[in-house]
Amino acid sequence: MEGILPLFKPKGMTSHDCVFRLRKILRMKKIGHTGTLDPDVTGVLPICLGRATKVAEYITDAGKSYEGEVTLGFSTTTEDASGEVVERQDVAAPISRKQIEEVLQSLTGEITQTPPMYSAVKVNGKRLYEYARQGIEVERPTRKVTIYSIELLDDREVFEGENLTFRFRVACSKGTYIRTLAVMIGIELGYPAHMSELIRIQSASLTLEDCFTFEEIEDRVEKGTMTEVLRPMEAALSHLPKFQISDKVAEKVKNGAVLTIPDHLLDTNGPIAVETKEGFVLAIYEHHPRKPGVMKPVKVLRNDQ
Question: Is residue 219 among the annotated active site residues?
Answer without folding.
Answer: no
